[in-house]
Amino acid sequence: METKETLNKTREEIMKGAPALDKVVRGTFIEVYLECTRKKCKCHKAKKYRHGPYYRISYGQGNKVHHVYVPLEWKEKAKEWTDNYIKIWEIIEQLSQLNIKEMKLKNGRKK
Ligand SMILES: [Zn+2]
Fold this sequence. Notes:
Helix content: 40-55%
Distance between the termini: 19 Å
Shape: rod-shaped
Strand content: 15-25%
Low-confidence stretches: none
Largest sheet: 3 strands, antiparallel
Bound molecules: zinc ion
Order of helices and strands: HEEEH
Strand order of the largest sheet: 1-2-3
Number of domains: 1
Structural class: alpha+beta
Number of helices: 2
Number of strands: 3
């Protein structure tokens, strides 16, 4: 059976795996291959000759989809931070359920 102590322990475990709130980007990390502006370049002939990979993040804002190019030195960070966005929401949900359980625990206690 769950007690305040086991709930606290679970909460600690959840928080240990939680990314820092400031290391977050809401968007989708995408790898892209692009055509260049040189008219004679073979990249215009077939997809396999395109340049890249380049990286970008697409994100929705105000009913529109926007893109931002990811600087190469941001590549790993950008991937991680878009994953963090999903993780952080999962953690919020877990903590919320846990806190509800704790409230229920108190409600069920007889005086
Ligand atoms: Zn080209």
